[in-house]
Amino acid sequence: xxxxxxxxxxxxxxxxxxxxxxxxxxxxxxxxxxxxxxxxxxxxxxxxxxxxxxxxxxxxxxxxxxxxxxxxxxxxxxxxxxxxxxxxxxxxxxxxxxxxxxxxxxxxx
Length: 109
What we know:
Blueprint lengths: L5 H16 L4 E12 L2 E16 L2 E17 L9 E5 L6 E5 H8 L2
Antiparallel strand pairs: 1-2, 2-3, 4-5
């Protein structure tokens, strides 16, 4: 098995979750759990999605949500039919889903 650069994987995981699971014009993802067991990565991230609009009366928060995304992904040989990660999101998006293969390929790029 090739060596895995855990710091690079952490940075890419954080960016991936923020880009694919957070919505709105103010997004954030923070890693709360990150453990590599052989080639299986266990993770949990806190995700914040927020939409703020300007109005003639000032800024208005349309929505502000905090939720978690967590999973276990085999980084070396993910089974694309085995794992699908989804989170609920505010309207009009409703649900955001990705497969374990998509996450692993992105993290190991």
